[in-house]
Design a protein that fits this description.
Shape: globular
Radius of gyration: 18 Å
Distance between the termini: 40 Å
Mean pLDDT: 93
Structural class: alpha/beta
Keywords: Methyltransferase, Transferase
Strand content: 15-25%
Strand order of the largest sheet: 3-2-1-4-5-11-8
CATH architecture: 3-Layer(aba) Sandwich
InterPro entries: Methyltransf_25 (IPR041698), SAM-dependent_MTases_sf (IPR029063)
Protein name: SAM-dependent methyltransferase
GO biological process, one term: methylation
Number of helices: 8
Low-confidence stretches: none
CATH superfamily: Vaccinia Virus protein VP39
Number of domains: 1
Pfam family, one: Methyltransf_25
Helix content: 25-40%
Length: about 280
């Protein structure tokens, strides 16, 4: 099997994994699709500042999963489209939007096929992130399709987990102290990373064994910026923040201003999330 065929098979494995995750996530407290977690809670205040007014703007949310964030865009007046590789996630996203009276079009498609999936439509805003880029093996190809989806002057906005966060690993080992340890690559280059986890990242039951495998790819911040610049986009902003929308580690404390979470004041301040703005000229 050549590299291209192997990568396609790994992404089909990921699709099966996300199909299996979907019913667990829908029932979880983490996502709160029963109304216990409002759509706005997934956003830091700076996101709305960076995005600007959304009323009447065409926006596509790539790798949208359940559409919990996509709903917030519709609530602010955007003509929102959500796109995801998981057919089961798209089904649930449509159901959630209907229950919240949110006018959103959802499309089941691999992100690499997004331009073909939307036809000749182009967008004022492409939004993606919070756990999306790690499932993409080829950032140059991804950046090129972003440029294709945007109208001239359109905005790409990424809010993504910082590679520092992903390199620290999900939790300490059983014999570790409270210190955060480097466990995974920050930089790209080693190819697909296989994870075989019994549970997904939310509360809820175990994944079926046949769908527990998932593959991720490391992307350093320089890799992301260089791919977008190579596609002809102009980087207009890059924020790094120590805030997260959920407590990754038990000792994280809630930030009163945003409702998000950060490490205790005495810990070193490290970036956990970044927000990147880029425009198509």
């Amino acid at each position: 099997m050549d590299t291209e065929d192997l990568t396609a098979e790994l992404r089909r494995v990921n699709e099966r994994n996300w199909d299996a995750r979907t019913p667990i996530h829908v029932a979880s407290r983490f996502y709160g699709v029963d109304g216990s977690r409002p759509a706005e809670s997934w956003f830091a205040p700076f996101e709305w500042d960076d995005l600007g007014p959304l009323a009447g703007r065409d926006l596509i949310h790539l790798q949208c999963h359940l559409g919990t964030e996509t709903v917030a865009f519709a609530e602010r007046g955007a003509r929102a489209v959500g796109l995801d590789i998981s057919g089961r996630a798209v089904e649930q996203a449509r159901r959630i939007a209907l229950a919240q009276d949110a006018d959103i079009e959802y499309i089941r498609s691999d992100v690499y096929d997004a331009p073909a999936a939307v036809g000749d439509r182009r967008f004022d805003i492409v939004y993606t992130g919070k756990g999306a880029l790690c499932y993409l093996p080829d950032l140059d190809r991804w950046a090129a399709l972003i440029a294709e989806l945007l109208r001239p002057g359109g905005l790409l906005y990424i809010v993504e987990f910082h590679p520092v966060l992903t390199s620290l690993g999900p939790k300490p080992g059983p014999d570790d102290g409270p210190e955060l340890l480097l466990r995974h690559d920050y930089l790209e280059g080693r190819g697909a990373i296989e994870h075989n986890a019994t549970h997904t990242y939310t509360d809820g039951p175990a994944l079926p064994p046949e769908a527990a495998r998932v593959y991720e790819w490391a992307h350093g911040l320089g890799h992301v910026v260089t791919a977008l610049a190579g596609a002809g986009l102009t980087i207009t902003g890059l924020r790094e923040t120590d805030l997260l929308p959920w407590p990754r580690w038990e000792r994280m404390v809630r930030d009163q201003a945003s409702g998000w979470w950060r490490l205790p004041p005495d810990d070193p301040r490290v970036p956990l999330l970044y927000a990147l703005s880029a425009t198509r000229t």
